[in-house]
Amino acid sequence: MTDEMSADTVTALPLTEKLEAILLIIDEPLGLVALAAAVSAPVPAVRQAIERLVDDYDGNGSGPRRGFELREVGGGWRLYVREDHDDLVAEFVGGQAPARLSQAALETLAVIAYKQPVTRSQVASIRAVNVDSVVRTLLARGLITELFADSETGAINYGTTDTLLQNLGINSLDELPPISPLLDDGADGFDEGTIR
User: Fold this and answer.
1) Contact 124, 89 (CB under 8 A)
2) 50: how many CB neighbours lie within 10 A of its CB?
3) Hey, is 86 helix, strand or coil?
4) Which stretch, 5-14, 38-47, 80-89, 90-99, has highest mean pLDDT?
5) Is the CB of residue 49 less than 8 Å from the CB of residue 16?
């Protein structure tokens, strides 16, 4: 198929199909203007197509009610699982192999593994970013655990779990590679003129 033919085919597709294709891949709700730009259609036509999709998914047309819905949240539209199916989906997702960790999660996990026991604020100061959501993710995946609360500050100290050891294929944290060879030891000193 030539590029010209495939472009004509995309142009000929119904607007609702184009919108569905975009709605299936987005992570964040998109407003009508952004959706209109994505499918190269006028905003009023996109608004009408969205309304048709909402009715269709809700079973108001000739088809059945779907297990998902198209919702407007925060000024944008996105597909969501219907609330009726939240427990089913949570059980399914919980039983699946965990997805790969993000770079932020890997960095946070490394800090905890090498510095444990360590508080969330200590990890945040080492990484120089807020790590609250990443710590919650690591806790939910069972890779870290709350070890104890500091008696003076009440701050929770975190450490790694046996699940992390199993995933890394090691028996203990002693088998982690030494981190010091990876760091600059400062032997080269400062650039001349930096400190006077």
Assistant:
1) no
2) 19
3) helix
4) 38-47
5) yes
